[in-house]
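cron nightly-structures :: item 1 of 1
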Amino acid sequence: MTSIQLGKNSKYDCTELVYSIVRNNSGKVTGKQLEREIGSRYEVRYAITRLTKEGRIKRIRGFGVDRVEFFYQVVSVVSDTHQQI
C-alpha cells in the first residue's frame, strides 16, 4: 500500500477518504490500517473523531491479531418518513 497525497482541504478530504475506506471495509478496518493507507496519523485520528461524533461510523471493540483492537463500522442510517410532528 502507498500513502495517499491530500490536497488543500486536507482535513475534509481525509475525513471523506477515511469514511469511504471504512464504508468499503465496514467492520474489518482498524485505525492502524487507516494510518498505513493514508499516511498521516493525526489527520486519520481527527477524521475518526469527527465521523464518530457525526454518527457516521462507530467503534467496535474486538480481538485483533495480538491484542484487543478497535474496528470501525459504518452506521446505517434509516430515514423514518412516518414520523411527522
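cron nightly-structures :: done
The radius of gyration is 14 Å.
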